[in-house]
Amino acid sequence: MACIFCEVAAGEIPATVVKRGDGMLAFRDINPQAPTHLLVIPVEHVASLNDTSDPQLIGRLMLFARELAREVGIADQGYRVVVNTNPDGGQTVFHLHLHVLGGRPMTWPPG
Ligand code: 5GP
Ligand code: ZN
Fold first, then answer.
1. Which of 14, 40, 50, 51 is deepest in the core (most CB within 10 A)?
2. Alpha-carbon distance 80 to 91, whole Å?
3. Which of these, 48, 42, 40, lies nearest to 100 by C-alpha position?
4. Fold that domain 4-102 belongs to in CATH
């Protein structure tokens, strides 16, 4: 399998899984940029945000991230959801994922 997040979803690469269900998976980023840095992916391979027009999939991803934030205790204080897309967006892994970042104040604008 060529896609590392497909391999994570299949259990072929170890990851710290925090939440799963509804065709989604959340796990800890290997190189965290905040005290809480989680990635949310659809188990089904989608390369980037440009590669799906399925409103159910996109909506379920976002709601999964919101519920995840609540469950890990960062919802009230606040958090950031990021979807890097293609080279200018800073995407390095081409399996659609949401970054859920929290546990510290975020700055704006992003780098
Ligand atoms: P992108 O730059 O594509 O938006 O984000 C990819 C993210 O995946 C990066 O934050 C990177 O640290 C994380 N990452 C890359 N490879 C792995 C891995 O094998 N396991 C985990 N848990 N995270 C990874
Ligand atoms: Zn994949």
1. 40
2. 16
3. 40
4. HIT family, subunit A (3.30.428)
**Rounded to the nearest whole angstrom, what is the distance from the C-alpha of residue 66 to the centroid of ligand 2?**
22
Q: 38 with 100: CB under 8 angstroms?
A: yes
Tens of pLDDT, residues 61-93: 999 999 999 999 999 999 999 999 999 999 999
Q: Over the stretch 12-64, which tens digit does the pLDDT of each residue have?
A: 999 999 999 999 999 999 999 999 999 999 999 999 999 999 999 999 999 99
Measured from CB, residues less than 6 Å from any atom of ligand 1 are 4, 13, 15, 27-31, 39, 84, 90-93
Sheet with 79-82, side-by-side order of all strands: 17-21, 24-28, 36-42, 98-102, 79-82
